[in-house]
Amino acid sequence: MPTPVWVVTLAGGAVGVAAVWGAARALRPGGRMIYATCSLLQCENGAQARAFAAPAGFELEEERNLTPLDGGDGFDMSRLRCNSRSSEGRRRRSGSR
């Protein structure tokens, strides 16, 4: 059976864990990535980005969300910046240069 990309918790949060960590390992110090969801649930949005950021060596630079009051269906975006020290360790552990 293939490894699932989605992990759903009883609290209702869901995140493509493998995809996020894969992108994180590919970034160089100072690099940025966007974590985005089409959801209004904080447990799937900013809470996930904040929970990922510090342990992974990232800084949450910006978070935006658009609700139906903004003219959309619901969208959240978090821009994360890779910190240099932790990213070097991540890349060494994963075998990248």
Q: Could you explain how this protein is built, in words?
A:
It is a single chain. With 97 residues, the protein is α+β, with helices and mostly antiparallel strands. The chain has one domain. Helix content is 33%, strand content 30%. The chain has three helices and five strands; from the N terminus they run E-E-H-E-H-E-E-H. The protein has helices at 17-26, 46-56, 84-94; strands at 6-8, 14-16, 32-37, 58-66, 75-82. The chain has a three-stranded antiparallel β-sheet with strand order 3-5-4. The protein has a two-stranded antiparallel sheet with strand order 1-2. A hairpin with an 8-residue loop joins strand 4 and strand 5. The chain is elongated and about 40 Å long. The relative contact order is 0.21. Mean pLDDT is 75; it is low at 7-15 and 87-94.
